[in-house]
Amino acid sequence: MAANPAVAALSSLLIDARFALNELTITVPKEQIVAAVKAVQAAGYNFMEDVTCVDWYPSEPRFHVTYHILSHSLKERVRL
Distances from the Cα of 80 to the Cαs of 1, 14, 54, 58, 69, in angstroms? Predict the structure, then answer.
């Protein structure tokens, strides 16, 4: 999986990387999301498809934000 451009770009930031539902899911610390988005953009992921949030009340952390970013040239999607 390290050969994936998004994983390679985020190697210093990622907590976890796995394929789920035929899609690469990369977990990064919430404090690093801006750096992570910039890194995948530099790796060729050029289209912010959507941003979604789940409220896990009463759990902490309560909110889980997910970003779906697409690379037109690679024909791949990554979920952060």
Answer: 15, 10, 14, 23, 8
**Nearest 5°: CA angle at 37, between 67 and 79?**
35
pLDDT of residue 4: 84
Average pLDDT on 2-14 reads 81
Q: Any idea what the CATH number is for the domain that residue 25 is in?
A: 3.30.460.80
Number of compact structural domains in the chain = 1
29 near 36, Cβ under 8 Å?
no
First to last CA, the chain: 15
Tell me if 35 sits within 8 A of 14, measured CB to CB. no
Q: What is the pTM of this model?
A: 0.84
